[in-house]
UniProtKB/TrEMBL annotation:
It comes from Nitratidesulfovibrio vulgaris (strain DSM 19637 / Miyazaki F). Keywords: Cell membrane, Membrane, Transmembrane, Transmembrane helix, Zinc. One of its GO terms (molecular function) is zinc ion transmembrane transporter activity. It holds the Pfam family Zip. InterPro entries: ZIP. It is a multi-pass membrane protein. This is Zinc/iron permease. Signal peptide: none annotated.
Length: 270
């Protein structure tokens, strides 16, 4: 199976990796079939874990390769990474300002983005979908980098990134489906909403891989762009949500565990 995967085009590899990360989101959402309630303490720890994975992936899988690819610029080697990182954060900030969405556990009156008449469930799914855009882009860019035959990029590293993002998608699926079940949704409807938040990842992965193959000189910028977008999501949403219910210390340990796991995966497999 591994050999067959290596023979696929980078875009198809990215698409399959995106399907995997979406599938883990659906697996997390499927917990709604087992329980109607979920410990807020456990949820905060899982969100912290997800944040740790995203932070580690942003550096080890994205920023570090971007810096390495720019070493030929000498003292200016930081420029592509810095520019791409800032643009990624600004892009997510713009989307955050425009797209109607609602953070977990907030009343609908606190919905962000442009005013809308969307239901609470739709706003919640939209918020989690914002997480998954940069994650899908990161996976796609990583596989595109492998096709560019760059020494800092490897297929094992790209697969490790997809695995890490998939692992942290599990609590995100749970974080949508279980609260919706508590609000009176049927188990099936809560599951469908929960897994829907991951549907954007295969699409974003294909876009990321195709963009890199189309314009390889932009690869350092693209890697840093995905990193900036992910860090924006972590700081603006994931960590604050994990710290808001009195379990901040446990959530922080979740961050440490997630960071350590993703760092280990990237270094050991990359």
């Amino acid at each position: 199976m591994y050999t067959a995967f290596t023979e696929l085009s980078p875009v198809m590899q990215a698409f399959l990796a995106g399907l995997f990360t979406w599938g883990v989101t659906a697996l997390g959402a499927a917990l709604v079939f087992l329980t109607k309630s979920f410990s807020r303490k456990a949820l905060d720890v899982m969100l912290g874990f997800a944040a740790g994975v995203m932070i580690a992936a942003s550096f080890w899988s994205l920023l570090a390769p971007a810096l390495e690819m720019s070493e030929h610029l000498g003292r200016w080697s930081f420029v592509p990474a810095a520019v791409g990182f800032v643009l990624g954060a600004l892009f997510l900030r713009l989307v955050d300002m425009v797209l109607p969405h609602l953070h977990l556990h907030n009343p609908i009156e606190h919905a962000e983005g442009l005013p809308s008449t969307w239901q609470r469930s739709t706003l919640l799914v939209t918020a989690i979908t914002l997480h998954n855009i940069p994650e899908g882009l990161a996976v796609g860019v990583a596989f595109g980098a492998v096709a560019a035959d760059l020494p800092s990029a490897s297929l094992a590293g790209a697969m490790a990134l997809a695995l890490g993002i998939g692992i942290q998608n599990f609590p995100e699926g749970t974080a949508v489906s279980v609260p919706l079940r508590r609000e009176g949704f049927s188990r099936m409807k809560a599951f469908l909403f929960g897994q829907a938040s991951g549907m954007v990842e295969p699409i974003a992965a294909v876009i990321g891989a195709a963009a890199v193959l189309w314009a390889q000189p932009l690869l350092p910028y693209a890697l840093a762009f995905a990193a900036g977008a992910m860090i924006f999501v972590v700081v603006e949403e994931v960590i604050p949500e994990s710290q808001g219910s009195g379990y901040g210390d446990l959530a922080t340990m979740g961050v440490i565990a997630g960071f350590t796991l993703m760092m280990t995966l990237d270094v050991a497999l990359g």
